[in-house]
């Protein structure tokens, strides 16, 4: 390079006020491309994430109804039919990462007025219990139906805690939620199986063991993983119960 080329080349000197125009152009183009690249990278990364769903607390739609509290094996409220809707069964949860076993065991198989806040995602509604008040006598003309067996099924999906999946947290599933789901299930919040395929048009199921009892620590290694498992499916009003045989569980990915 000749002396003249070196002399005329743009060069930035810190103690001078002027910045050569070619250098300004280069820095401007580089900054624009860098910011655009970050935006495209963020868009590509976000597009690979699971949809957190539309679940949320229904603070503006507080729940109050009369029904019968049962343990099946987790706390549920059995509500009689009315002129518009058939009989319903709602899973129950306590505040925070606690279940509703205290209220359910105190008032088991009795008629109560239950007040709380619904946590809803699609067809899944869980009630966060606020207050339970016994009702004298029985709910007039209401005898809860027995569960109806839909046979043995092999389902693929994920074990979640029902409260977070319903909308208490978003996302309420996947590896990002594994530690939270562990704490919620330990605290007594009902586990749900979110299936990749429907049974009677439902994709979530209240879980129990193969004998219909509570599930314990044996499900923790399977949390937040895509698994395949067999078991009996029962329909309890509008709620599906999946009595899983964990001996058949197989991690798919």
Give structural notes.
The chain has 253 residues and is an alpha+beta fold. It folds into two domains: 79 residues, OB fold (Dihydrolipoamide Acetyltransferase, E2P) (Beta Barrel), CATH 2.40.50; 104 residues, no CATH class. Helix content is 22%, strand content 39%. It has five helices and eleven strands, in the order ααββββαβββααββββ. The chain has a five-stranded mixed β-barrel with strand order 2-3-4-6-5. Strand 10 and strand 11 form a beta hairpin. It is elongated and about 95 Å long. The model has no long low-confidence stretch (mean pLDDT 88).
Brief summary of the model shown:
This protein is an alpha+beta fold. Helices cover 22% and strands 39% of the residues.
Helices, strands, pairings?
Layout: H1 3-8, H2 21-47, E1 56-57, E2 63-71, E3 75-79, E4 88-93, H3 101-106, E5 111-121, E6 124-134, E7 148-161, H4 162-168, H5 178-186, E8 191-199, E9 202-209, E10 227-236, E11 239-251
Parallel strand pairs: 4-6, 9-11
Antiparallel strand pairs: 1-5, 2-3, 2-5, 3-4, 5-6, 7-8, 7-10, 8-9, 10-11
């Amino acid at each position: 390079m000749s002396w003249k080329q070196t002399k005329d080349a743009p060069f930035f000197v810190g103690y001078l006020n002027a910045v050569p125009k070619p250098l300004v152009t280069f820095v401007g183009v580089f900054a624009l491309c860098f910011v655009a690249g970050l935006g495209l990278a963020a868009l590509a990364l976000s597009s690979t994430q699971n949809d957190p769903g539309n679940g949320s607390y229904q603070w503006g739609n507080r729940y109050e109804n009369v029904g019968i509290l049962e343990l099946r094996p987790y706390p549920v409220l059995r509500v009689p039919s009315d002129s518009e809707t058939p009989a319903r069964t709602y899973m129950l949860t306590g505040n925070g990462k606690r279940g509703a076993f205290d209220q359910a065991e105190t008032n088991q198989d009795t008629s109560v007025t239950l007040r709380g806040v619904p946590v809803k995602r699609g067809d899944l509604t869980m009630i966060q219990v606020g207050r339970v008040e016994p009702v004298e006598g029985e709910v007039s003309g209401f005898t809860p139906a027995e569960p109806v067996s839909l046979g043995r099924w092999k389902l693929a999906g994920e074990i979640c805690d029902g409260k977070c999946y319903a909308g208490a947290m978003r996302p309420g599933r996947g590896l990002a939620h594994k530690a939270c789901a562990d704490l919620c299930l330990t605290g007594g919040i009902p586990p749900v199986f979110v299936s990749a395929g429907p049974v009677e048009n439902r994709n979530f199921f209240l879980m129990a063991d193969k004998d219909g009892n509570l599930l314990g620590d044996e499900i923790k290694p399977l949390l937040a993983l895509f698994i395949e498992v067999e078991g009996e499916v029962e329909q309890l009003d509008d709620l599906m119960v999946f009595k899983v045989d964990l001996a058949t569980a197989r991690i798919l990915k």
